[in-house]
Amino acid sequence: MLATEQIQRYRLETPGTQHHIHLNNAGAALMPEPVMEAIKRHLELESDHGGYEAAAMARGRIQGFYQSLAKLLKCEPRNIAFATNATDAYSRALSAVPFRKGDSILTTREDYVSNQLAFLQLVNRFGIKIRYADTLPAGGVDPDSVRDMIQKERPRLVAVTHMPTYSGLIQDVAAVGRICREHDILYLVDGCQTAGQLDLDMREIGCDFFSATFRKFLRGPRGTGFLFVSDRVLESGLHPLFIDLHSANWTGDTTYRLADSARRFELWERAYALVLGARAATEYALAVNTVHIEQRVCQLAKDLRQKLASVDKIEVLDRGAALGGIVTLHIAGSSPNNLKAVLDQATINCSLVHIESARFDFQERDIEWALRLSPHYYNLNSELDEVTGILDEQINRS
Ligand SMILES: Cc1ncc(COP(=O)(O)O)c(C=O)c1O
Prior knowledge:
398 residues; alpha/beta; Aspartate Aminotransferase, domain 1; Aspartate Aminotransferase, domain 2; globular; binds pyridoxal-5'-phosphate
C-alpha cells in the first residue's frame, strides 16, 4: 500500500499534478522530475560534446536501460530491445514470424486497432487467415476456446492485447501463455497499457514477445518503447524482416551474422536522451514498487467506476473478471466533443475513444464513442470526486 505521504511526495516530484487533474495516463502519463532531468542532462552533453561523443561518454548509463527494464519485467537484459513506440516494437515482432500462405493468427476481439490493421495487411499480402477466440460471458478471452482453436487449426501465432485501449479489461495472458507453451505456439502480447500499471513477470506470462511504450503508465518520454524477446525466439534465430548494421554483422558479400541478443530487433539510430529518460522512468517505477502501483491504480479505477455508476445516465462500459486502470463510460444522447470541452475547461485531462478504435466492442453495444478516464497512482480520490461531479452537473444541465 502506498501511504498518503508517499503519494504527496510523488505529486511534488510531478509538476504537472499542480496544474491539472491528469486522468489521461492511458494516453501519456505525467513525467516525474528525474525523467526530465535525465533527458535534459544528456541533451546538454550532446550539445557540449557532439551526439556520438556524448553516447560514448554515457555508454554505461545507456547499458543500464537494459538492466533496469530486465528487473521490471523479470527477465534478462539480453531479452530486451529498445523501440521508438509500441507499434514499432509490435511490427518488428510480427515481421519475424515465418508466416506461410494459409497460416492463421489466433487473436481476440479486444485486440488493439493497429494490430488488427497489421493482421489485415498480412491477409491481403500473404493470404494469412485471422481467427478470433471466443469471449467469456463476463468479458475477456476464453482460454478454453484458445486451446480448442489451437488444437483444431494450429495457428502460426497467438496474439493477445493485455489491456485494450478502450476498456480496463485485464486479459488472462498467463492462462493463454500456458496453453501456447503446451502446444509450442509463438505468442505475442501487446502490453502497451499494462507496462508500468501492473506488476509484470515475463516468466509467468510465458510469451515470446511483449511490446510496450514508456509514455503511458511507465511515465517515460514520448518516442520510446521496448520489445521483450524470449530465449526460445533468440535460440531459434528468428529476426525482423528488415535489419541493419546494429542488428547484424555483414560477414561476407552475401552473409550476415545476427546479434545474439534481442538487439537483433533494434535499429542503430535512436535518441539517447530519451533512452536515458526511459531508464529513469523504469527506475522510478521500481522505486515506487510495481506491486503497490498495481494495487493503487486498480483501486482508484474501481472507486471511479463506482462513483460514475451512481450518476444517473452514465453507463460504465468496462467488463471482465479483472479490471485495471482504464475506465470508460458512455452517456446516451450526449455530445462527446462537448463533454471533452467541459472537462478541458476544468483542466481535467481525459480522452475520447471512437468506434474506429473499438469496432467489435462498440458495434455490439451500439455506441459510437466512449469517454476514457485513466487514473495513475499519483491521482487522488478528491480528483475522482471532482470529475464525477462535473459530469453529473453537465448531464443535469443538458
Ligand atoms: C493497447 C495498445 N496497444 C498499442 C498501442 C500503440 O502504442 P504506440 O502509439 O506507442 O505505438 C496503444 C496506444 O494507445 C494501445 O492502447
